[in-house]
Amino acid sequence: MGTHDLDHAYCLQRACRITMTMEPSGNDFSSCCQMLSNARTAFPGWNLPGRRPSLRLFPVSLGRAFATLLTWTATTNGHLKVNRNPELDSEFVNADRWTHEANLLREILLECELTEELKWRQPCYVHAGKNICIIQRMTGFLALMFFKGALLKDPDGVLEAQGPNSRSGYRICFASTADVDRKAKSIRACVRDAIAVEKSGRKVKASTQVEYPEELLVRFRDDPDFKVAFEQLTPGRKRGYVFHFASAKQPATRFARIERCRPKILAGKGHLER
């Protein structure tokens, strides 16, 4: 039975699934590298041709070393830096839904040259100070939302609009750990593309056309001062009001919403501003 080269990236990813602490536990970078090298001869049956490695043959001590390699990266001067934010551990361990799926998704994202921060009460993944994507725990699914998803190539067709009014953010949705695993390649491709988009400086173009509901046009005809105030709002504030008005199903409700928002519009404020 011959010995074959280990797929290092795959080994690192799988090792983290058996050691959720993902802490160094006394192994420095050089000793972890040595353990990685020794694994090939120590466990020749672990990586057989035609099948994936079995974690049942993989000792926990070696798993900790592999996990250390995944969460620590070597800099040019030989020092180590943490790639994972321990302050977010509780967000993954104590979550009331999608716990296993989110942990697996976290593993994949930490392989992609991203650092993680807590933003908007969710784990957010950043590259060179730019927001790339954020994990969203929804009621019916787990999602990874890319802030500039509208600009990504998405050759696998995994990105979905968040809603009918989505302009920039698009997300990948997951319903199980198997779903996350199946889309891992697409996730990595989207992250690489998103980083490239940020480096290029590209931005999502704002639409200059907003279709006003009929009830708003009627109000404009009856109240010229209101129309002037509305047209002087920023494009974002105008879109916010239009979406708020148009989302009502009944004309009477749309008129009522317009009337309630009139004082804010005359004051130059947005729909959600106080």
Describe the structure.
The strands form 2 sheets. A 6-stranded antiparallel sheet has the order 3-4-5-6-8-7. The protein is elongated and about 60 Å long. The protein has helices at 8-16, 29-42, 60-71, 89-93, 99-110, 177-182, 184-200, 214-222, 224-231, 235-246, 251-266; strands at residues 72-74, 80-82, 115-119, 122-127, 130-137, 142-146, 160-161, 170-174. α1 (8-16) packs across α3 (60-71), α2 crosses α3 and α10 (235-246) packs antiparallel against α11. The chain is 44% helix and 14% strand. It is α+β, with helices and mostly antiparallel strands. Residues 1-29, 42-61 and 67-82 have low confidence and may be disordered. The protein has 11 helices and 8 strands.
User: What amount of the residues lies in strands?
Assistant: 5-15%
Cα-to-Cα separation, first versus last residue = 72 Å
* Poorly predicted ranges: 1-29, 42-61, 67-82
Would you report the number of β strands?
8
**CA-based gyration radius:** 25 Å
Helicity, as a percent range: 40-55%
Estimated structural class: alpha+beta
